[in-house]
Write a structure and sequence with these properties.
The protein is globular. Strand 1, helix 1 and strand 2 form a beta-alpha-beta unit. Helix 3 packs across helix 5. It has about 200 residues and is α/β, with parallel strands linked by helices.
Length: about 200
Amino acid sequence: MQRIDMSAASSSSVYTVVVAVDSSVPSLHAFDAAARLVARLAEYRLVVIHCTALNKTSRFPYFDHLDKAYNLEIQDESRAAINECKAYLRQFDDLVDYELVEVEGEGDVGPLIERYLADNVPECDLVVIGTHNHQGLKKMLYASVSQYCVEHLPYPVTVVKAPAPADAPPTSPPVVATATLLHGSQTALNAATASAPTHEQ
């Protein structure tokens, strides 16, 4: 397997990649892409984030009970999604090292990711995230986490689109899906996958 010296691509000797997952097909393809990338690096840190975005509790009587009830449902669904993610990630245990982080907070997923990175992974070199590729009305109804990350994160962001058909499960071993490279991520990705001598494991 090819190993790459990243000393010229980052001020740190460790190339840090963060990928957001939610058990959806696009997010698992994003993990595939991130795993395929770091598997070629000599020194890396792969952080996998699962965010649970809760509703803000209302200050008005009765409505606060509704918000709490909705949040309990969200947390139940989130636990199920995390278990699905863990089951999928296990197939990579012998291929790459990764950290699975569970983040929970009020608000939207995008800002939760932003705050977590700022507080815990400020040295991040690249963020990888999947997209459902909603268009038109669906894009208006469903807030785009990938779009938020592209517009607000101070790091290079790679948006990975799952190959058609949209409901096809990711393949194993991982295959890099078609990616739209934004905010300097082309340079980061090129540096990460530059040619280097091959070393036997």
